[in-house]
Structure formats: C-alpha cells, structure tokens
Specification:
The protein is built from six helices and no strands. It is mostly helical. Among the domains are: 41 residues; 45 residues.
C-alpha cells in the first residue's frame, strides 16, 4: 500500500485558518480530501506546539545530497556496464565521500535506472546455421 503525499506547510496553515474561522473538521477534511481524523490530529498538534511543521524524525541522515545522487546517476549512465562496487570507488575518488554499494543502488532505483547486462543476440545467417 502506497502512502499518500504529505500536505505542505502552506496547506496545513490554511487548514488551521479554516478551523479558526469556524469551519468544522469534517468540512476542512472534505476540502483537502483527507480523513477528519487527520485534521483533528493537525489541530491537536497546533494547539500543543503552536506550529504546523513536521516534527523532527528519527533515523540516520543521508550521506549524499541531491547533487551527489545526480552525479551517481550521470556516472552510471555514462558507464553503463560499471558495477555498483566500481561506481562506489569512482564516487569516493571524485567526491571524497565513502558510500556503500547499497547507496549507489538506491540512487539508481530512485530514477528507475536498473542494472543489467544486455544479452548477446545470435544473428541467423547461413554460416551460423548448423544442419544436423
């Protein structure tokens, strides 16, 4: 099941403004196409913290920036048959950042760039046909 995209801070601020303007949570929810419980949670968070921004999340921060990810993708497109370990070495040599092969694979998957070696086709010519 896919997660729905999060509402922007601007949309959340508008929702809070609508609630403060006297609209009911279910009407605001219908306007934004979300469940009424989502708006109720947003209202509770705003009352508690006074903000509508996301709270900080746990987890390890990314080692590569968006520009680094683009660099990885460009390098892998230029050298189509280079393996992930080789891309890792080349990325470390150019940027000085050590990343795992999994990071390289994730950067490639995010732009739908899948690794693979093309199969070699055998062209049928009279010289390649073997008659038994």
């Amino acid at each position: 099941m896919r997660r729905r995209p999060r509402r922007t801070s601007e949309q959340r601020s508008i929702a809070i403004g609508m609630l403060h303007g006297g609209m009911q949570a279910k009407d605001v929810a219908a306007h934004f196409g979300v469940a009424a419980s989502t708006i109720s949670r947003l209202k509770g968070r705003f009352n508690e913290t006074g903000r509508v921004q996301d709270r900080p999340r746990s987890g390890r921060p990314k080692k590569t920036s968006a520009a680094d990810d683009r660099n990885i993708v460009v390098t892998s497109r230029r050298n189509r048959f280079m393996s992930a370990p080789k891309l890792t070495e080349q990325f470390h040599a150019t940027s000085g950042i050590r990343v795992s092969t999994q990071t390289i694979r994730i950067a490639s998957i995010n732009v739908a760039l899948m690794a693979g070696v093309p199969t070699k086709e055998v062209f049928l010519r009279p010289t390649t046909l073997v008659c038994v």
